[in-house]
Amino acid sequence: MITLRRSLAFSHLARYRSLSTRASSILNALEIPTSEPIHGVYDGAWGGSGDVHESVCPTTGEVLARVHAATPEELQTAIAKSRDAYEQFRHVPAPRRGEILRQIRESLAKKRDDLGALVSLEMGKIRTEGEGEVQEFIDICDYAVGLSRMMNGRVVSSERPGHTILEIPNPLGVVGVLSAFNFPVAVYGWNLALSLAAGNATIWKPSPSTPLCSVAVTKIIAKVLESNNMPGAIATLVTGGNDVGEAVVESVDVDMVSFTGSERTGRKVARVVQSRFGKILLELGGNNASIVMPDADLDLAVPAVFFGAIGTAGQRCTSTRRLYLHRKVAPEFISRLKALYASVQPGDPLTSGTLLGPLHNRTALDIYADAISKLRHADADILSGGRRYEHAPFDKGNFVEPTIAIPRSADAHDAIWATETFAPVLNVALFDELEEAINWNNAVPQGLSSSLWTRDIRNVGKWIGPAGSDTGIVNVNVGTSGAEIGAAFGGNKSTGWGRESGGDAWKQYVRWSACTVNFSDAAPLAQGVNFSA
Ligand code: UN1
């Protein structure tokens, strides 16, 4: 019966699917079928005959595709094939793994513009940001190619004669990557590149609302793997909903789970993975502040806050959500910022020049509406925005006015300040002393990114020192969002303490062994322990 229903669904779709040229030209360029249901599972072969997930364009409301997720059986097969792939791949020398990554990098670079356009089409971010996201994947591939010749262990001096201690990194196993809708390409890229260089297989469960980005990326990677005679299940894809994600998280065959998403879901994921003693890497909520001192260069600070708050329509984990202005600089800052906000027109994110695209989905609209209503109830001063765009053509998409508000209270424990609102809502408060602003910066549960604007080196010392900002990303005269790949990316406290991308992040993707080797003819015990009878 189920099979019959599925085959009816297939024939129905094959008959009725008709796409705008806006969408079909992008899908065609990436070899995503436009006339048949799309398989959302890859484990060396394409498949997927489970639930259907719709990809809906956030700009126009058009259904871009219906993608078939993994059934529970298909998912278990995909996990098993990932495991087998890992068992083969771990024997491939790391520099050879790097060479495969280099080819993936080249293939991504050839499709940079098309993939960037798909990100805009399906996620809703503007084109330059969509392309930037693909660039981030390309950059981390470059980084991981180099890393493939530098994932070094250590030789440690032994206290015993004729002994040597080696700290050896070996491949870890299967890495599950659960990514979010807001960065449907780059966050997977960070994980795939490091995981592959480390000799692992990955199994990717993307957000259910951005399946096309994951299919397009996986097609590119699969071609490279297959042309190198490598098992495709080194880069397995399983699209689907919560049930698919839960099965990946629960599987003892998945050695590490890298999860990006909300604090609420992250807490659940962490418990499950911890209870089976798997490794966990979390990238959860950000509630990021910019602090502006009286000596700041406003020509730099105002546009940076503008980009931080409005870029990606406020849907980056690193978006600026809190703005702390020194009382002396506040009037001028606010008037300049309001002028920039007033100049913003919403538009199709695919059209060049658009700065404000739609929110990703209806849920995001509700989150925005809820935040605005809480601000109104708390009698906040709404300086700009506060409404949905409801006239044509914006009524078809999820467009909202970017909002600046001054809440009555600056109490960082108040829900208005303490909650991450994944929408373009910027709350402002005024301060007199830097210490006060740093306390507010640190008083929220989240700890991803923060930025200080000053020309005074003494302020910088306070900001980056022991009593300074407690976030994972601590910037000076640089906005909260738009980090490069070279440093470790991630946050503290309820952001989950995870680190991805650059820095020492790769060290999590390997299994470390401390290996003491005795080359001598004696077998002394450490610490001088004497155990002779
Ligand atoms: C995210 O929002 O999940 O630093 C990732 C940035 C980007 C990555 C953001 N490079 O804003």
TrEMBL record:
The keyword Oxidoreductase applies. It is an enzyme of class 1 (oxidoreductase). GO terms for molecular function: aldehyde dehydrogenase (NAD+) activity. InterPro entries: Ald_DH/histidinol_DH, Ald_DH_C, Ald_DH_CS_GLU, Ald_DH_N, Aldehyde_DH_dom, ALDH7A1-like. Keywords: NAD, Oxidoreductase. Its EC number is 1.2.1.3. The keyword Oxidoreductase applies. The active site is at E283. Belongs to the aldehyde dehydrogenase family. This is aldehyde dehydrogenase (NAD(+)). It comes from Rickenella mellea.
